[in-house]
Amino acid sequence: MKAFISLSFCLLFCNLNLTYSQLHSNDLQITNIANEGYLLQSSTKKILIDALFSDGYGVFSVPPKEVTTDIMNAKAPFDNIDMLLLTHYHKDHCDPVLINEYLSKYKNIPFVTNKPSIVFIDGNCFGFIAKKKQFVVITPEANQSISQTINNIPVKVFGLKHLSFYRDSVDLEETMLNYSFLIELDGIKIFHSGDIQKNAFQDYLARNKKWTDSIDVAFLYFGLIESGESDLDYILNTLHPKYIVMTHVIPKEMEKWFVITEQLKKKFPNILLFRNSMDSQTINITNIAK
Ligand SMILES: [Zn+2]
């Protein structure tokens, strides 16, 4: 009987463990999906960003099929999602079919993105626009920003130039804007850069004089720290993040970036780099940015 009671207690307890978040206030659990895709969870909120994609152009990391299936089926930890966000419509961030299907299944989850992404997905999935009630379309001009609160989550969107690829002196990303996000989850301020280089910040600052937004955790395209310590100094002096998560690292270069990250940690210990999909870490933000 005693054994039965303790077994029942264990089952109940284990079940509670699965059902309720163990996160405390000021905790942020970061779960790596792939490339720039993450599941972010605070004490009461949970969001997905750049997480529904299946094509890495043969170079970038993609989520394993089982992970995408779990997201699509809202299987824990992908249950109770408050918001799906997308920085831009490149295929290593966005699969139109998956996003269309996901929004069909979960009609209460808002899709926070920009107008070019909506046009792209609609072009691939005829009729996508019929879901417009679920869309929160925020499309600032280049080097401008727009703030909005969605489902009690404050979101600020920055229109920042997508990083460049040159061929025959033409920037193949000339027309591509990238939309960076600053999202506040239970008071924790999270910046997700999307695909930008340093010049995007510099152009934004040239127009706006100074970066005024507080940041607790900055998810940064790895190229922003490409030249090592001097780039890190620039980020620290501009954005003043408490944590940095390096994103978009090519699998082939992962080991190299672990070495670089270890070196940079001597100057700024709070740098995270995730290796595999579903690798997860909970950080506690002390002195949350005001
Ligand atoms: Zn891109």
Could you please describe the fold and organization of this structure?
The structure is a single chain. The protein is an alpha/beta fold. Helix 3 (about 95-105) crosses helix 4. A seven-stranded mixed β-sheet has the order 6-5-4-3-2-1-16, covered by helices on one side. A seven-stranded mixed β-sheet has the order 7-8-11-12-13-14-15, covered by helices on one side. Strands 9-10 form a two-stranded antiparallel ribbon. It is globular and about 50 Å long. The chain contains seven helices and 16 strands. It has one domain: Ribonuclease Z/Hydroxyacylglutathione hydrolase-like (Metallo-beta-lactamase, Chain A, 4-Layer Sandwich), CATH 3.60.15.10. Zinc ion binds near residues 88 and 195.
- Span of the ends, CA to CA: 54 Å
Bound molecules: zinc ion
> How much β-strand is present in the residues?
25-35%
Major sheet characteristics: 7 strands, mixed
Number of helices: 7
Which key terms come to mind for this protein?
single chain; 290 residues; alpha/beta; Metallo-beta-lactamase, Chain A; seven-stranded mixed sheet; 7 helices; 16 strands; 27% strand; binds zinc ion
How are the SSEs ordered, and which strands pair?
Elements: H1 2-19, E1 27-34, E2 37-41, E3 46-49, H2 65-72, E4 83-85, H3 96-105, E5 111-113, H4 115-124, E6 135-137, E7 145-150, E8 153-161, E9 166-167, E10 170-171, E11 177-185, E12 188-192, H5 198-208, E13 217-221, H6 229-239, E14 243-247, H7 254-265, E15 271-273, E16 280-284
Parallel strand pairs: 3-4, 4-5, 5-6, 12-13, 13-14, 14-15
Antiparallel strand pairs: 1-2, 1-16, 2-3, 7-8, 8-11, 9-10, 11-12
Helix pairs in contact: 3-4
Bound molecules: zinc ion.
Zinc ion (ZN) is lined by residues 88, 90, 162, 195.
